[in-house]
């Protein structure tokens, strides 16, 4: 059993409680860029995982999570979340990835701007994870979770999904996106698959779980839970 270490991390989590618990540990990584984090995706992810995992949040620089797309269904939850200890994320640069059994990236519109660099090996503040760590990523965070492996990303033999071109073109910043997930996966040797726009579509390949869009969040996270329990 691996436990979360709070050395040099101030996130308000009681270490004694964690060590006595039989729960696996899961790190939720969120973007800190102005484009923010999808409130609906984060809400679903956190709610599903909170009873199964010991959770910790982390962002680049430990910056506050800026939720976007807050509506009537998420406003109260976001308000309650922001006053709890885990609303203060740990610095991603200080995280020891080897201490976690699972890594979860909810849908983050800003992931392509900061997480893709923070989780890629050429960056001086890389989050290194054991090879068999369960990875779950939703839509725009897919590229970030793919890049933790090394400077030469090789996904030969892996099947993945992510937002399709038809879904990406609806974004107002489409012309400025640093990459298209489908092209990146194929260029890295992986196999990309997608369903029609806004359809629920999740791909599970060994310890890697990827979701095509926000609608796929719940199914992807539930499979992360099943996969973690089976280990």
Give the secondary structure arrangement, pairings included.
Blueprint: H1 15-20, E1 25-29, E2 37-38, H2 39-49, E3 54-59, E4 67-68, H3 75-81, E5 90-91, E6 102-105, H4 115-118, E7 134-138, H5 142-146, E8 159-160, H6 165-168, H7 181-187, E9 191-192, E10 202-205, E11 208-211, H8 217-230
Parallel strand pairs: 1-3, 1-6, 2-4, 3-5, 6-7, 7-11, 8-9
Antiparallel strand pairs: 10-11
What does this structure look like?
Its main location: other. GO terms for molecular function: glyoxalase III activity. With 231 residues, the chain is an alpha/beta fold. It has helices at residues 15-20, 39-49, 75-81, 115-118, 142-146, 165-168, 181-187, 217-230; strands spanning 25-29, 37-38, 54-59, 67-68, 90-91, 102-105, 134-138, 159-160, 191-192, 202-205, 208-211. The protein has one domain (15-230): Class I glutamine amidotransferase (GATase) domain (Rossmann fold), CATH 3.40.50. Strand 6 (102-105), helix 4 (115-118) and strand 7 (134-138) form a beta-alpha-beta unit. Helix 2 runs parallel beside helix 8 (217-230).
- Assembly status: single chain
pLDDT under 50 segments (min length 5)?
A: 1-20, 120-127, 147-151
CATH architecture, please? 3-Layer(aba) Sandwich
- Side by side, the strands of the main sheet go 5-3-1-6-7-11-10
CATH superfamily: Class I glutamine amidotransferase (GATase) domain
| Backbone CA Rg | 16 Å
């Amino acid at each position: 059993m691996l436990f979360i270490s709070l050395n040099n991390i101030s996130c308000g989590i009681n270490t004694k409680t964690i060590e006595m618990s039989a729960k696996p540990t899961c790190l939720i990584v969120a973007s800190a860029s102005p484009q923010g984090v999808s409130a609906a995706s984060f809400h679903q992810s956190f709610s599903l995982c909170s009873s199964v995992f010991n959770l910790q949040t982390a962002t680049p620089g430990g910056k506050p999570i800026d939720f976007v797309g807050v509506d009537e269904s998420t406003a109260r939850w976001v308000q309650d979340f922001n006053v709890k200890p885990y609303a203060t994320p740990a610095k991603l640069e200080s995280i020891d990835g080897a201490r976690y059994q699972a890594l979860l990236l909810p849908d983050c519109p800003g992931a392509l701007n900061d997480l893709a660099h923070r989780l890629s090996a050429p960056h001086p503040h890389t989050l290194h994870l054991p090879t068999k760590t369960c990875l779950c990523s939703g839509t725009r965070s897919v590229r970030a979770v793919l890049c933790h492996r090394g400077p030469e990303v090789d996904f030969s033999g892996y099947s993945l999904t992510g937002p399709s071109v038809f879904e990406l073109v609806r974004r107002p910043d489409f012309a400025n996106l640093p990459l298209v997930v489908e092209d990146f996966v194929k260029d890295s040797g992986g196999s990309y698959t997608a369903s029609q726009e806004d359809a629920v579509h999740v791909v599970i390949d060994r310890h890697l779980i990827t979701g095509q869009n926000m609608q796929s969040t719940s199914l992807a996270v539930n499979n992360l839970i099943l996969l973690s329990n089976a280990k």
